[in-house]
Structures are given as C-alpha cells and as structure tokens.
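Appendix B, Record 12. Input sequence as logged:
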Amino acid sequence: MSNARKDLLKEKLDQLQCQFTWGPQKEIIDLDDMKHRLQDSIQAGVKYQAMSYNQLAFVNCLQGNCEEAIQNLKEAEKILRENHEHEFEKRSIITDGNYAWVYYHMGQLTEVQSYLDKLEMICKRFTNGSRYTAMISEVYGEKGWSLLTSAAQYYEEAKECFEKALEEDPDNTEWIVGYATALFRLEGFSGTPESRKHSQSIKHLRRVLELDPDDSVTMVLLALRLNGFNQKEEALKLVERALQKSPDLPYVLRYAAKFFREIGAVEKAVELLKKALEITPNSIFLHHQIGLCYRIKLNKCSAFHQKAELINQCKYHFGKAFEHRPLTSIKPQLDFAGICTINGEYLKAEGIYRSLLKLEDTRPENKQAICLQAGLFELHQNKSESNAINHFQKGLKVKYDSIERKRCCENLQKIAGRRHRRNSRDSKAFGILGLLHQLDGEKREAIECFEKALEFDRGNEEYLSALCELRLSL
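Logged structural output:
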C-alpha cells in the first residue's frame, strides 16, 4: 500500500459529507452508548432507519468492526431504495461517503477510489461546489439527525442544519420533525435563547401533524410542550390518541410516560415505562424516567420499610441510566448522588461529585448543575463552607444564564450575608460580593468590595488580581 496514494485518498475523503467528517468524533462520544441507542432505535422501529444504519456503520468502523459496518451500509442502501426510489442518488451521497471511509479503514483502496468516482459523478449533477460533496437539503437533513443523535453539545448545530435543509425543501416532514425536535430539546435547557422566548417547537410540531396527522411521536412531543404552557386538555387528548395509534412504540410510551409523570399520574407513568423497557431494555432514558417516578413516590412516603425499598429502586434505575454512559449521562449521576445523600451514603455521593467535577466536554448547564449540587453537598453534609464557596463560584464563572447559575449566585449571596453578620470584617464575604458585582458588570461596586476585602486580608493574590483587572478595564 503506497503511503502517497493513501495520503491522497485521505485528502479526498476529508472533503466528503458523512458521519466520518462531521463534528462528533471518537474522543468526544461514548461509542458503546451510541451503539446501544442506535440499536434500540432500530429495534423500536424509528421512522428514519437508513440514517440510524449510517451512523451505526460509523460507530462499528471506529470500534474495528468494519465487516459489520459494511452490512449496516447495505441495510441503509436497501431502505433508501425502498423508500426513496426517485431520489435515491441524492439520498445515497452520505451512505457512499461512509462506504469510502470504511473501505479506507480496511485498506481496500481500489474500493475507496470507486466510491469517490461514483460520488464525483453524482455531485456534479447537484452542485458546483466540491467535487465530492453536494450541500443539498438531503445532506443537511441527515447531518442534523446525526448531530441530534450524538450528544447534547451538538443540538445548536443540528438546528442550523435543519434550517438549511428547510430553506431548500420547506415542506419536507423529515426536516420539519428534526427542526422541531432540536427546538424542543433546546427549549428544555434553562440557559438557551430558545428557552427564553415563546416556544417555537409548538408551531413546527403542529406543522408536522398537518403534513402527517398519524405521526404519534410528534403528538406526544407536542403534548409535553403544551402541558408546559398549561394547555392540559389538548395535551391529554394528544397523548391518548398517540397511545391508541402506537401502543407498542417505545418512543411514544416514553414521552407519554413523561407527560403522565409531569401531571402527577406517577403509577400510569411507571406502567408505560416498564412496558417500553420490555422492548428496549438498555434504554438509559427509560431507566432515568423510572428513577424519577420512584423519587416522587419516595418524597411522599413516610413508612420506613417502603422508603428503604423506594431508595433501592431509585438507586437501581438511576445507576442503570449511567452505567454505560459516565461521560454524557450527567443528570442520572446527580440524581443517584442525591439519593445516596438521602440514604447517608456520603462517600459514594462524594465520589460521584469528584469525578463529575473533572468533566470538561459537557453542556454549560451540566457544569453548573454539578457545581451547584456538589456545593450544596459540601455545605450541608460536609459542613465545609469554603469548599461550597469554591464550587458555587466555579458554577457562576461559567458564562451561561441558566437556573443552576442563578442558584449558585443565590447561595453565594446567602453565605456572604451570613459571614458578614457574624463578622463585619470578614474578607471572604467582601470577596464573594466583589465577584458577584464583577460578573454582573458592576465594576465600581466590585472594586469597592475587593478593596474592602484587601483591607482585612492584605496581600490576597485573588483579590489583588481581580482589582487590577477591574481598574485596567475602567
């Protein structure tokens, strides 16, 4: 195998649009977890299966299962031929790109070249851009779905891909569903621009149902958003209709269960979640949702024996929800640590916080939630105010306007107030207030607080550095 030939082919492969050249890479995603989720979605009968097989091929190839990856691509090709006969060439651009990459990893360079030649011929018909790429709605749409399936860090980019796909093909249900799903998820994070305005996802979910009135997954997603805006009657009708149409579809069951949990019908939620779990037993979403249901029951329970059983159920299901996904399944780990704290298992909870605090590549509200919960644990269980302050300050310094950040700020204000009441010369109290003013852009107030802090703690490098930075910025 000539190195020069291999390098030249690699240069061409890097120009392709497919899973191998898009954002999420081996270092960022948990491959085992993604494989479980893709297999679950295929098994659960997800609508757009060719995309799932394409992504599964990417994961299998990265794990060294190249023969399996080729089989996945053959499945994707078969589904595309069956469902998109008249636009097969457009739809197969990504699959062909994946074939080229898998054969490159297998060292079969003649096959790589044949797929590149094929792509060049196809792309020539649809674009004047790169020889091997056509930035058409089918490519943008599948890229959007791929990013949406990978990790929460990519939701914003996925939304942009669907926007581009819809510019070219505004009535395509697949892309509207993808766009609505991206909006739905982003609206669920407290610090995103989407969460601060009137729900855009409702409009687009309604549009999907205009084009495809039988889309039961869209019905339950719309119900969840409507319930959030207190439109409970319409929401309940949608959920009941979706369950009637698709009583065994895991995606319908899971979102319907979430709806019932949110309206307080916990037993009904557990029943639906357990039914879905029989179909997709590895689903972390389902285990986490069941754990949340048992936690509601635990909070209402007073009988000691029942409490012990509910704690075990919570721990089991929260544990299952991050067992194969420690780098990305943040919420279940925080919930598990919270149950350990209730149960007096402080060392176990502390271990979870320690490992979570080391995470870098996660959404900003996750970082803030970790800092908040670890800070509260230090404050109330370890009785360490100084450690709590450090965690709250770390959460506050993440520049992202979430509920978790506000709570870090509130806790710091309470601590500063408490310390100042105990000792009006407490430098730490003034240092905290200085930081709060600084992060709010109130520079003069911040300078005043840091000057006070230095008055009672001369030579403190942290305060000197902050003061110097503030004075220079004025």
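The radius of gyration is 26 Å.
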